[in-house]
Amino acid sequence: MPLVVPGIQSKDSSNPSTEDWSNKLMGKKLGDTHDTVTFAKQDLPKEHRVLTPDSMSTMDFRPERLNIHVDNEGTVTNVRYG
Questions:
Q1: What per-residue string of b and e applies to 5-21 under the rule 16 or more CB within 10 Å gives b?
Q2: pLDDT tens-digit profile of 23-43?
Q3: Region labeled Disordered — which residues (predicted)?
Q4: Phi-psi region for residue 27, left (φ > 0), alpha (ψ -120 to 50) or beta?
Q5: Bridge partners of 81?
Q6: Beta partners for 69?
Q7: How many structural domains is the chain composed of?
Q8: Structural domain of 51
Q9: DSSP one-letter string for 42-71
Q10: Does 12 reside within a domain?
């Protein structure tokens, strides 16, 4: 029987997929409120981190942590769990 990690290999309704977060965040900036170009930070999952091009990060893999990569202007360019 294969190993199934919730939210990674299976659809877990309590943990939206990377694709769901990508659809919500890609091309937007993170801010205090929602509008057509901004996503409110308070609506991100508890376990998240925002990574800029020059930021350092640990290499530990945490499947519940949402990694949000932004460019130098603060626009989301990539979203993934880990």
A1: eebeeeeeeebbebeeb
A2: 999 999 999 999 999 999 999
A3: 1-21
A4: left
A5: 66
A6: 51, 78
A7: 1
A8: 18-81
A9: GGS-SSEEEE-TT--------TTPEEEEE-
A10: no
